[in-house]
Write a structure and sequence with these properties.
By secondary structure, the protein is mostly helical. α1 packs antiparallel against α2, α4 packs across α10 and α9 crosses α14. The N terminus is likely disordered.
């Protein structure tokens, strides 16, 4: 029997997962899966529009990864937040207000540590403006970009200076976690995201998402080490072990990301004055 989460949405997801993979911790397949499942979280008032554009969103959610590969010097800062540059949880030394953070750390230092939560705030505003102006083409694109950045806020390796595992002697653990496990096992993921909700402060919520993701880092690194014990390479046995040890974290983070993406879309629509959306 096919699980409920693998019904209609999973059919499209299976097709999208066959597309070529791009570099990054949350790989292109994970990004597409999040955008696809986010549509399932929406209320009827706006779901028809996003349902009609599901394929567009799932394809263009990887555009920021393309930008990253083409313009790493200008785009990279938008994809991460090195929380470990700001002490320990709850990282109170980092103001969540951008102007206050720049005043405290300077723009150069801030960008060197990443501006992902503020980038999410920017694209939340862009989607709101496009919906308010009835610019549906721009709304579709802004929704896809917003989904990409929100998904990355749920990737633990987008929240740490140890983004590729090299600082802990585990190079490539980010790709093994965020790309390889998704590529190998996502068709079996029991993803059931919650209904989208209104977010009072999109930027503040993005910070919370980053902190929640960051809390899983040590568990993932430990799972990677244990999965490799007694093996000389990253074999099928390794990935089976790694999935048994860390698969629940992958599923939780992707599911929460889908819920949040839907919530950001819903929030932008509400802040735009609840415009009547076209059926396509």
């Amino acid at each position: 029997m096919i699980p409920r989460s693998l019904s209609r949405a999973a059919v499209l997801a299976a097709v999208l997962l066959a597309a070529p993979q791009l570099a990054g911790a949350w790989g292109a397949n994970a990004q597409r899966l999040v955008a696809n499942m986010a549509v399932e979280t929406l209320p009827p008032d706006i779901r028809v529009f996003f349902e009609a554009n599901r394929y567009f969103l799932s394809r263009h959610v990887t555009d920021p990864l393309d930008l990253l590969s083409k313009n790493p010097s200008t785009e990279r800062r938008n994809h991460f937040l090195y929380l470990d540059h700001y002490g320990k949880f709850p990282f109170d030394s980092l103001p969540r207000d951008y102007k206050a953070a720049v005043a405290k750390f300077t723009k150069t230092k801030l960008e060197a540590s990443g501006v992902l939560p503020w980038q999410i705030g920017v694209y939340s505003q862009k989607l709101t403006a496009a919906l308010r102006d009835h610019d549906w083409e721009q709304a579709r694109l802004a929704a896809a970009y917003l989904a990409a950045y929100v998904a990355q806020a749920h990737d633990p390796f987008h929240t740490t200076e140890n983004f590729d595992g090299r600082l802990s002697g585990q190079p490539g653990v980010d790709l093994r976690f965020g790309s390889s496990l998704v590529d190998r096992f996502s068709v079996f993921f029991p993803m059931r995201p919650n209904d989208a909700v209104f977010l009072r402060d999109p930027t503040d919520h993005a910070f919370d998402a980053c902190m929640s993701a960051h809390a899983w880092l040590e568990n993932i690194l430990l799972a990677d080490r244990r999965a490799r014990e007694g093996l000389s390479d990253y074999t099928d046995d390794y990935y089976d072990r790694f999935y048994n040890l860390a698969g629940a974290i992958v599923i939780r983070q992707l599911t929460d990301a889908a819920t949040d993406v839907g919530s950001y879309w819903l929030t932008a629509w509400i802040n735009a004055g609840r415009p009547q959306l076209p059926p396509q």
